Amino acid sequence: MTDSRTRPVAASDGAGARRASRPSPRSFPWAVPPGATEDVIRAGRRRWYGGAVFALLWQVLELVAVWNDGRSVEAHVWSTLALFVLYAAYLFAPELMWRSGMRTRVLVLAGIATLAGLLLLAVGPLAVWTWLLVAALTGFVAERAWIAGVGVLSVIAAQLVVAGTLGWDEAVGTGLLFAPIVTVSVGASMLFFGRQREAEDRLDVAQDELTRLAVVEERARFSRDLHDVLGHSLTVVAMKSELAVRLVDVDPARARSEMLDVERLSREALQGLRQAVGGYREADLDAELVSARAALAAAEVDADLPADGAAAARDVRSLFAWVLREGVTNVVRHAAATRVRVTLTRSTLTIEDDGTGDVAGAGDVPGFPSVGGRVGGNGLRGLRERADAVGATVATGTSDLGGFLLRVERKGRR
Predict the structure, then answer these.
(1) Is 381:411 a contact under the CB 8 Å cutoff?
(2) 413 with 390: CB under 8 angstroms?
(3) What is the pLDDT of residues 120-157, one digit of tens each?
(4) FRET partner for 94 with CA separation of 20 to 30 A, picked from 79, 239, 283, 392?
(5) d(Cα 20, Cα 11) in Å, to the nearest integer?
């Protein structure tokens, strides 16, 4: 209910979310907690003066009643002046409260209550209707609910004493006995608005936390995409560059061809990076099969790959493309393999090699024990996150070829 809850949709470091203030218990929108910032105080000031002026409009009825109580004009003038003193004190008292602690606030509230009580001398019993303003001001001490409660009950008790002194029959006839009832309503409204303030503040804190988590999630997604896009491409570029260096003296034509591939892959990596930054990149399985075949050939690895990705269900092709990219990248980087076999069905992609082994402790495919550390890290973790998003599972183990096995499967689909 204050401007402090206005926040950016996203922040680069999540600081906007962490700046959310803890909810202050049971206080009016304008009764900002002690020690609040200038921005919060300005917001509370705008809300206070808007509501306070509206409340004072109802005091026109008090002025009309005072000028029609049968006393002299002089008495009416003095009563009106006394009322305006109270109204001014009510209107500007919060200026003493916003930057003060609870003790000062209680003292200011007690001063206003005393001034309202003294109106009995100038206005008479009709002054009890001005005590509603004192009940409203208890919103500034509502952070201590018992103090606010005592304040409202004291006002009600004083009104009942005045009504009893005047006489119950006369109090009913003049309507003064309704003042305690209205004061109860004001007190109940204060409690309601206080609870609403608390609930809204808690909601804002929760929304800020969701914003922070969204920023964290977006960071994770972006870093995962960068890893998947650049990791594979740069690995292939490095392999082809090394091959070109070896061939430049013995087979210049093939070395030139390899360097042309390096140029092409570099451009593709740059384009993939641009698409990842834009958040629109969707991996293509057919393209990844072509790229995998080229990368394995450059690494001089015998590859058994599907001709295309038509066998895979359409809703898992993007996932399979990312898995294929990561799997082939790790074969080229770490496996020391001479053979790779990729098997593709409607709901499953399996990558096997005859290299040095699998992820440390990752042997989670039944029947495939773990045989040592090789992959893991950000790549495999990113694949698991992608698979979870579409209801698939990623498993690793030892392949029939004697090396590493990587499998992703969409459950319930064949």
Answers:
(1) no
(2) no
(3) 888 888 888 888 888 888 877 766 667 777 878 888 88
(4) 79
(5) 13
